[in-house]
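Technical annex, item 7. During the second reporting period the consortium partners agreed on a shared format for inverse folding records so that results from different sites could be compared directly. Each record opens with the tokenized structure and is followed by the designed sequence. A conforming record, contributed by the partner at site C, is shown below for reference.
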């Protein structure tokens, strides 16, 4: 039997956990009623999951308005880890909320005696691995783990308590991150570098080395589930002109998903560019471009004849009315040139961490070097609904940089880049909480 929180944390780490959370279970949190994970979609940025799909099963003749996503879930105990093959998340857009279900079915070692009842004081602990697996451990009110967790004030991320990786760890992940950023700030100028697969720092000469250099100093390497992170924090650098005004050199690129519908998808990028592209404006011969800013507040673009629209979202209530909705650029007759489904966009958005740190940087050369600033922006608890709200208001926008070179040749050179961006000053719109921290 697991006899302490320290032992449980050891077991979670042994099975690959790099982040550990807990949830105090309410009476309704059980196998019959599912486990409630919050009154928005922010849990999707904490719990790794598979593709979101429609659940079209009917109850009493009515089709349920919900979507599901599989979770690669394992119960852990002192004997090992045990797969729960039917575990998954359920999304209810009308409320909105997210619940977890199927965590007992098909797993003989599952803690059924805890998860089938309505007892007060129960605790569910989640371990998140770098590969996107979710580890679970349930304890009743009398268990030492429940008592230890209940006797301490832990940081909160939505409905989750954020537990340390090691028992007795004094600093929270946020404190650890700030300590590291403070150390890096004190280094002043750092030679541009990139972390190799073996963990060694290697010189990096290209001009996009600001992020790589910061990640190398933090010891960050990419993993299979999400973007590079530090103890659960997404760390992003952005170039500035000075450390006085911290004016960003460019907007923040949030994600670069390819369209999932429209002419772009049906006829291919070549057909799309022939219809909506335009000759290069700087005079480069035999080149077709597709650019401009597209948001829900603007009319037809003067070069492409397209505008941005959104379906399936009610801006007044801030809710998704149709999970099959999309963002689309359309022409003057409302024909869809390109579209991005909500489900596809959610998959990209959910790769973003619930917590993010934005770090300013200066660049100089030769040799290429970076210096990181004394003030950082910390943002916590993002949610796809916040993304849609900012998109509906025009704060988040589509800013493509697509080009076709040697367009008249048999083998034209095509560069795809469908960017969704936001001004740095509008980043807080995408999070529940934010703060500027002086290092």
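Designed sequence (site C submission):
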């Amino acid at each position: 039997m697991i006899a302490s929180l320290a032992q449980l944390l050891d077991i979670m780490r042994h099975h690959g956990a790099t982040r550990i959370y807990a949830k105090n279970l309410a009476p309704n949190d059980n196998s019959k009623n599912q486990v409630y994970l919050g009154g928005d979609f922010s849990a999707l940025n904490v719990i790794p999951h598979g593709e979101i799909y429609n659940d079209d099963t009917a109850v009493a003749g009515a089709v349920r308005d919900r979507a599901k996503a599989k979770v690669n879930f394992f119960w852990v105990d002192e004997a090992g880890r045990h797969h729960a093959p039917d575990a998954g998340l359920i999304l209810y857009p009308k409320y909105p909320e997210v619940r977890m279900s199927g965590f007992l079915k098909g797993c003989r070692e599952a803690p059924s005696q805890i998860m089938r009842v309505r007892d007060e004081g129960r605790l569910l602990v989640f371990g998140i691995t770098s590969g996107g697996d979710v580890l679970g451990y349930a304890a009743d009110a009398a268990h030492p783990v429940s008592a230890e967790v209940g006797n301490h004030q832990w940081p909160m991320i939505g409905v989750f308590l954020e537990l340390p990786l090691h028992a007795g760890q004094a600093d929270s992940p946020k404190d650890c991150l700030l300590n590291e950023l403070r150390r890096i700030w004190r280094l002043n100028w750092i030679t541009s570098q990139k972390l190799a697969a073996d963990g060694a720092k290697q010189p990096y000469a290209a001009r996009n080395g600001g992020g790589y250099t910061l990640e190398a100093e933090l010891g960050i390497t990419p993993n299979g589930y999400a973007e590079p992170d530090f103890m659960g924090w997404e760390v992003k650098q952005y170039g500035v002109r000075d450390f006085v005004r911290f004016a960003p050199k460019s907007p923040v690129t949030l994600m670069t998903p390819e369209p999932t519908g429209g002419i772009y998808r049906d006829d291919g990028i070549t057909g799309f560019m022939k219809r909506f592209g335009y000759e290069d404006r700087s005079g480069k011969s035999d080149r077709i471009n597709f650019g401009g800013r597209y948001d829900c507040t603007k009319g037809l673009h003067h070069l492409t004849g397209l505008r941005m629209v959104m379906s399936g979202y009610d801006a007044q209530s801030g809710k998704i009315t149709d999970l099959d909705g999309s963002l689309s650029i359309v022409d003057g007759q409302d024909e869809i040139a390109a579209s991005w489904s909500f489900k596809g966009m959610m998959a990209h958005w959910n790769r973003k961490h619930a917590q993010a740190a934005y770090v300013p940087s200066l660049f100089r050369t030769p040799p290429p070097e970076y210096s990181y600033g004394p003030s950082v922006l910390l943002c916590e608890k993002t949610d796809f609904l916040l993304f849609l709200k900012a998109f509906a208001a025009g704060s988040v926008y589509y800013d493509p940089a697509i080009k076709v070179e040697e367009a008249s040749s048999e083998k034209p050179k095509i560069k795809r880049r469908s960017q969704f961006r936001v001004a740095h000053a509008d980043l807080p719109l995408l999070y529940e909480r934010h703060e500027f921290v002086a290092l």
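The two ends are 44 Å apart (CA to CA). The domain at 171-439 is CATH 3.30.70.3570 (Alpha-Beta Plaits). All partners now use this format for quarterly exchanges.
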